[in-house]
Amino acid sequence: MTRSTVKTILILTANPKGTTPLRLDQEVRDISEGLKRSQHRDAFRIEQRWAVRPRDVQRAMLDLDPQIVHFSGHGEGEEGLAFEDESGKVKFVDAEALAGLFELFADQVECIVLNACYSEVQAEAICQHIPSVIGMKKEIGDRAALEFAVGFYDALGAGRSIEFAHKLGFSAIRMAGIAENLTPVLKQKTTPPSSSPNFSHRTALNTLSASQKRRLEQRQGILQTELDLRSEKLKQLRESWAIEAGSAVKFQLQKQIQEEEVQLTALEDQIEAIEQDLI
Q1: d(C-alpha 163, C-alpha 156), whole Å
Q2: Predicted structure pTM score
């Protein structure tokens, strides 16, 4: 495999003074180990930059020409992502500034993962220029963030698409028994209408009547209620499986868990489709 076919993953971390300590070293180690043992391990090269300041990001982008950029740290929504200043304290960089930076590298970057709380606003801005961006719609716990990252890169290492990797990432959160699997959201760059094969469909959706929109919203509410109920049921099944000693009963519980996971995935897909129709 030639160097030109190897994709560089740039991992950026920041845990400034005064912020909650994060297990960033374990996250990076688990990502690296997963890729090293993966089927397509020779297709990726990992580069790391720790305690990054804004200028460090610029320099790393210039020096390494990455195709995938992964940020692990803190986020504060509209205020921005928490990088470090010269003294190691918090230096927030907002969505507009980040989008402006990554726009300069739009010809090479394929995906950006913002593994930080409330980073959906940054993902939304950056995806105007980058094909795929993952952000967090709300606060995400340290363990959930780690599980998502490992699942995501395990899937890439197996040769799967970014869309599949995103789904496996939040499946990994759910498999770990953490109720934060819907926190990571995938944003994708919108294709210009003139070149989009679904343009006529999108146009039709933009002209939904008030009653059509109301029915979709009602359907969305029903599906969300069912999703919440099934999520709670799945949690109880996992708890029962964890304390059950009998192998036969554990086997039956595992089958029920797998069935519930399939149903949850189907519900999530339906809700996501409605959300797209309502845009």
Answers
A1: 10
A2: 0.69
